[in-house]
Amino acid sequence: ILAQGHLCLWGGECGDPKMGNSALSTSRMVFRSDAQLHFRGASFAEVSDIIKCWFEDGAPLSFTLESFSEVLRVEDDEAASLFSTFDTDRNRKVDALEVLAAATIVSDGPMDEKLDVFFPVFDFSGTGQANFDEANILLHSVTRGLSKLCGTQPFEEGEVLSVCHQMFDSHNLPYTKQISKEQLRRWLRTDVEAAAFVDSFANGYHLSNMECALAAQEQELAKAFAELAPSRDVVIVDRLRDSTLFRKALGDPTDKDLQALLRSMAGESQTIDIQRFAEGARAWTIFNAVDVDRRGAVEGKELAILLFFHHREEPAESTVEIFRGGLSLGRKE
After folding, report:
1. Is 67 inside any structural domain?
2. Which of 208, 221, 226, 256 is most buried, taking the most CB atoms under 10 A from its CB?
3. pLDDT digit string (tens) for 148-202?
4. Distances (CA, A) of 35 to 81, 99, 226, 310
5. Quick one: 227 and 194 in the same domain?
6. How many domains does the chain have?
7. The EF-hand domain covers which part of the protein (predicted)?
8. Residue 248 CB neighbours (<10 A)
């Protein structure tokens, strides 16, 4: 347990990303705007149908509001709002490849299946493979589309080009050759930076779903406290340790993790008051929710997300850095 102010974090050592690297320093997305929730709420099957419709419409490289509404199958009022998310230069046209790329990545479904329907969008020559220019367009469309939809910092032109070089280099492919879908799939699985970047969006958090899940678990923990301390505002540590109800409400932690949590709540005392219990319980539930891979640790770049859910508001950068220093995670470059 690491304590800083009113925040308790469990999970041992948190890995610190290579600061300055855009892919590794991109924290997991919290989908909260209407546009983000719309695309995050789409199933893989729905996105697959959208791409099929786009091909049937002649695979246009840009959308007007009318064609955007038709291909994405959204009503006019909603279409205008979604369209404006991608129409950042306000010329009343959006890049179709950016829209399809972002919609595919953030949709609900396995990445392997997404790639199966996504790759043909950039196979302009129809060979079943992508040459260097096509692969470069694919990467640009993904990064720009996600940046517009999610409001993240866009990649520099040279940085995307460098990633494309790395993708070909990983398979010892000359830049004059083509890369197959399976090679792209293997690169996404094995390249740490690429995997981290895609994961940040493909496995982002749906804000309302996350809040509902947190509230439900906190309610179960509150019930456990009330049962173990029915007429008092304090509970004996040993009663919590031996309680099956408490363990179940926590998600059946290991004995080691449970001991660490109780120690962080109680300190040297043999009892835990209701305020300290509530603080520790909320920190525990938030950490477990953010730890989607169930590794018992989250990377330092996710600290802002932990603070966001803990305080129920966007943390100031200075606040994040204070906590970062207190947890010895190193300063973001």
Report:
1. yes
2. 221
3. 999 988 899 999 999 999 999 999 999 999 999 999 999 999 998 899 899 899 9
4. 7, 12, 41, 24
5. no
6. 2
7. 74-109
8. 12
